[in-house]
Amino acid sequence: MSESDSAELRRVEEAPATPPARPKTLRPRLPVVRKPPALVPARMINEVLYCERLMYLEWVQGEWSDNAFTVDGQSVHRRVNESGKPLREPPADPSEEAPPYVARSVWLSSERLGITAKIDLVEVEGGSVVPVEYKRGACPDVPSGAYLPELAQVCAQVLLLREHGYTCDNGEIYYAKERRRVPITIDDWLIRSTLGAVERSRRLVLEGVLPPPLVDSPKCNGCSLVGICLPDETHALVERSPPAERESEDPSLEVGDDPWGLAPPAEQPVRRLFPARDDKLPVYVQAQGASLRLDGERIVIHSKDQPSQEVRLSNTSHVAVYGNVHVTTPAIRKLLERGIPLLFNSYGGWFVGQAVGHDSKNVELRLAQYGGTQDRVRCLQLARTFVASKILNCRTLLRRNHESPSPVALSELKQLARKARGAESLEALLGIEGTAARRYYSEFSGMLKGGAALEFDLDGRNRRPPRDPVNALLSFCYSLLTKELTLAIRAVGLDPLLGFYHQPHFGRPSLSLDLMEEFRPILADSTVIGALNNGVIRSDDFIAAAGSVALTPPARKRLILAFERRMDQLVTHPVFDYRISYRRVLEVQARLLSRVLLGELPRYPEFRVR
Ligand code: SF4
After folding, report:
1. Lower Cβ count inside 10 Å, N or C end of the chain?
2. Cβ partners under 8 Å of residue 201, min gap 6
């Protein structure tokens, strides 16, 4: 290695792999049984040097998410792994002449080194071998030919080959974008850095604490886990939290009027590092007797009254079926393989359950959730936030949409929100929420224009079954919202059945109902108000029978479309000040709740509209 190469490597090594000192956060060691991992994968050696949090999220918490870079990388690796010979044993006599050959997907491990690796390609010529690591991008403009994480990954492969008796002097990286191979020199410094990274990975696993995110790092731009990690959001919330909470190891029940409030944007703006909205769309099937079957990469929907329709799997976020809809086994299996949830609802719209692929691997998070639900202090702290935020969002909806909002009602709701923040028990909180709901629904008809208002039962909310058209609409939209929250919660790795405010109850998605509180007015109620005021739903769209009122199928379709438009609408996040769709908001809020449970954030940040 030339002197300039060594200097470059040292510069890379000296660059901080871990972020600067940060405020202390609530970061308990989680009660997961830990023992030092016997073998550290070479890929994790790469990642721990790139970002310790990335390594921990992927390896310890089992998180994964694809972006354009990872998908491209997978296709490069698929091509290289397609065919090839296995690696033969090293020759007993190194001078023995044998025809050269290439081995692919070579898996080697060494307990002495504590490393395991799947090597893309090993070229064998004469008595020596060269491992080749495939990378999707272009060669970086550095004298060493690669950054430290990639150098260490190749070094780990070289060490493994040597450990298994092969003569291996150096490795190579093939950059697919430029179709260029770059030799990687293995010197003592690189070996020390690589073995140091192995040791660091083992220590992080044993410590059991999610490392903090990088600070304002360009590395986060290309990181596929950025939507899971939420680096800028986490820093912003920790920095804006009151110092007492930041320093405390024990979340206090003391609450102010508005702990996060609609905090002004931080001096350092929060970057939105993930897409504002998801390009995939949900599929709703409510025609009774319809059937869904698989056709290659598409789902075909047959129903007797309409021509067949096809949807691409790659464009589908989830499939929701209502009532008597048949789904073939191959279609179910393909949906599960692709991670597309299949949601079953009753004909009337009640969310019954779902079929999903493998559950999240994040055991730490689930243990934290189970522990949290047993902790009355934690339950009350979260429940207060959910309820206070809901009451304030109801108040905002009234302020925005009521023809002449009652100052008394607005003032009462504000006071009830304040009371909710200081409620001394879950039972007291239930009472406050009930009073606020009665006050809010007593004003609800004032948000409806003309004849729509006359249809609403002035006694307020009724359900199971709904007895008037507006309550039928509200019930249906709450059910759609429950489904959305359940999907978001599952995607994050939480258990939707275990809540903090809504106590566990057979089959009830209590956590979905918890998180849903603050979104009821802004997503469900506003959809209903818009649908009625804009004439999307009219008085002849309902069927009344035996004291209950239900929507006709065509009206239900229009209401689902109105709800979907609302979910896809971009909104400015009140805490982070960037614009994302409401559907993304639900995922971000569920993710932030998971960070509260893991002890990284001191408090759940409310989603409050202005
Ligand atoms: S988003 Fe940034 S901080 Fe988070 S895991 Fe990725 S690189 Fe690390």
Report:
1. C
2. 37, 40, 44, 45, 48, 55, 59
Mind listing the pLDDT tens digit for each residue in 216-261? Answer: 999 999 899 999 999 999 999 988 776 555 444 333 333 334 444 4
Phi and psi based region of residue 208 (left: phi greater than 0; alpha: psi -120 to 50; beta: remaining): left
Residue nearest to atom 7 of ligand 1 (CA): 220
The structure tokens 């202005």 sit at 610
Residue in the block written with tokens 């003391």: 254
Give 385-450 as a DSSP string. HHHHHHHHHHHHHHHHH-SS--HHHHHHHHHHHHHHHT-SSHHHHHHHHHHHHHHHHHHHGGGS-T
* 365's tokens: 């998070």
Residue from 245, 500, 498 nearest 380 by CA: 500
Mutate to test the pocket of ligand 1, among 47, 52, 53 (most ligand atoms within 8 A of CB): 53
Q: Whose CA is nearest to atom 2 of ligand 1?
A: 220
Nearest to 485 by CA among 499, 473, 471: 499
Answer yes or no: are the C-beta atoms of 543 and 549 closer than 8 Å.
Answer: yes
> Which residues pair with residue 342 across a beta bridge?
319, 355
pTM: 0.84
Q: Which residue has the CA at smallest separation from atom 4 of ligand 1?
A: 229
For CA atoms 157, 159, 162, 168, give the dihedral sign: positive
Kindly provide the b/e burial profile for residues 400-410, where b requires at least 16 CB atoms within 10 angstroms of the residue's own CB.
ebbeebeeebb
